[in-house]
């Protein structure tokens, strides 16, 4: 710690602060350096990376934006008549409106015309990116559908506040699985994202 290095005796990973951010936040080296610089108030000159780096970075930015769009969609659905069951679940647990807003809870509609996939389609989001986001799944027959349906939605964010994943809790008896989480994506690694850190830090 005093020397500025870390070592995990469980998995054997180790290195400096940049390596720690790379592993913890699932970022490539250049983004980890920018992240640390931003937190420290240091301006980092932007160098032009190669085409592949720029494409990967643009794709990650787009995936984060899709998650922000999804979070807004789920919040909107929670406030709608269809979200009554999810609101009741939150009220039963004694959560105030302020707490619900702070943590950004939402509702994923059961099905029908109003779907996240439909919202993405209206916005002309490429199908490949919809699937890569983990928010939309492709069935064997090629049909696309929302990953989360009829669930209380809990956003998962980096400590910067950027939403990168969701947890979805079943609302009906017998609905399985009871908890459904986002799969790993280019912007989300399950073991390296601590829920609520963006709110509590």
What would your notes on this structure say?
By secondary structure, this protein is α+β, with helices and mostly antiparallel strands. Helices cover 41% and strands 15% of the residues. The chain is built from eight helices and eight strands; from the N terminus they run ββαααααβααβββββα. It has helices at residues 17-25, 29-40, 51-79, 84-92, 97-103, 116-122, 127-132, 197-200; strands at 6-7, 14-15, 106-108, 136-138, 144-146, 151-157, 163-170, 179-181. It has a four-stranded antiparallel sheet. Strands 1-2 form a two-stranded antiparallel sheet. Strand 7 (163-170) and strand 8 (179-181) form a beta hairpin. Helix 1 packs across helix 2 (29-40). It is globular.
Residues in β-strands, percent: 15-25%
Distance from N terminus to C terminus (CA atoms, Å) equals: 20 Å
Computed structural class: alpha+beta
Please, how many helices? 8
Order of helices and strands: EEHHHHHEHHEEEEEH
**Low-pLDDT segments, ≥5 res:** none
Oligomer type: single chain
Q: How does the major sheet shape up? A: 4 strands, antiparallel
**What is the mean pLDDT?**
86
Widest beta sheet: strand line-up: 3-6-7-8
| Spatial shape | globular
**Which percent range fits the helix content?**
40-55%
Cα-atom radius of gyration: 19 Å
What is the strand tally?
8
């Amino acid at each position: 710690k005093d020397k500025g290095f870390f070592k995990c005796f469980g998995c054997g990973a180790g290195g400096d602060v940049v390596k720690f951010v790379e592993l913890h936040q699932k970022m490539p080296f250049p983004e980890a350096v920018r992240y640390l610089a931003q937190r420290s108030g240091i301006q980092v000159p932007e160098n032009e990376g190669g085409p592949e780096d720029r494409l990967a970075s643009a794709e990650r930015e787009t995936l984060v934006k899709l998650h922000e769009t999804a979070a807004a969609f789920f919040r909107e659905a929670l406030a709608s008549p269809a979200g009554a069951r999810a609101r009741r679940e939150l009220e039963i647990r004694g959560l105030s409106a302020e707490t619900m807003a702070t943590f950004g809870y939402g509702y994923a509609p059961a099905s029908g015309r109003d779907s996240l996939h439909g919202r993405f389609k209206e916005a002309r989001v490429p199908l490949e990116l919809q699937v890569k986001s983990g928010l939309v799944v492709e069935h064997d027959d090629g049909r696309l559908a929302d990953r989360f349906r009829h669930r209380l939605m809990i956003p998962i964010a980096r400590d910067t506040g950027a939403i990168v994943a969701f947890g979805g809790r079943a609302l009906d008896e017998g609905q399985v699985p009871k908890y459904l989480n986002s799969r790993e994506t280019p912007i989300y690694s399950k073991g390296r994202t601590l829920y609520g850190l963006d709110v509590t830090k």
